Prior knowledge:
This protein is of the alpha+beta class. It has a domain at about 5-165: 3-Layer(aba) Sandwich (NADH Oxidase), CATH 3.40.109. It has eleven helices and six strands.
Amino acid sequence: xxxxxxxxxxxxxxxxxxxxxxxxxxxxxxxxxxxxxxxxxxxxxxxxxxxxxxxxxxxxxxxxxxxxxxxxxxxxxxxxxxxxxxxxxxxxxxxxxxxxxxxxxxxxxxxxxxxxxxxxxxxxxxxxxxxxxxxxxxxxxxxxxxxxxxxxxxxxxxxxxxxxxxxxxxxxxxxxxxxxxxxxxxxxxxxxxxxxxxxxxxxxxxxxxxxxxxxxxxxxxxxxxxxxxxxxxxxxxxxx
Length: 240
């Protein structure tokens, strides 16, 4: 298959699971901006294809439906990570191609600079307030996986421009307040303690306000609130 058909194959398979953001780029466009283990497999050429996979709030009702259908998934310590892995594996299998896969939740030698990859792919601008801002959905997106394949990637795109012109007076002051409240403790626990301040940073962004996550999705992403997840899962009408 050519590059366009390959991307459409992944776009269809991932979209069926709620991962509705799929964008191709030449792997070398990303690799030249990172070092060491952060570089993706290029299969011998920087011109080969990389694909970044993410989601808008479209993920949530599909994820909840999967939890209702699979008690083991609901009981998993990290059900969204497992769901992501399962869906990407299905998409890779459907393609029938050799694919190197890394996930946003990978650590160590399999880590990926997902925000940088999303920016060079033209998916989302990396703002000075450290938010990945999609031109339609704003900061209300998640970045989930990075794929690379031994086929030619697309021609380089023009660099993204800031969707609303700048974060000064908008998101940046809210981000600085959240960072100051952490008192130098750059840990997940400190971030959870200050989650409402980081949420305020997203809410301050004027782009994509109509696509804000629902309350259940917000609480799970910031707090890993399993009770909220379970409650949302069994609601008759899943929130979006």
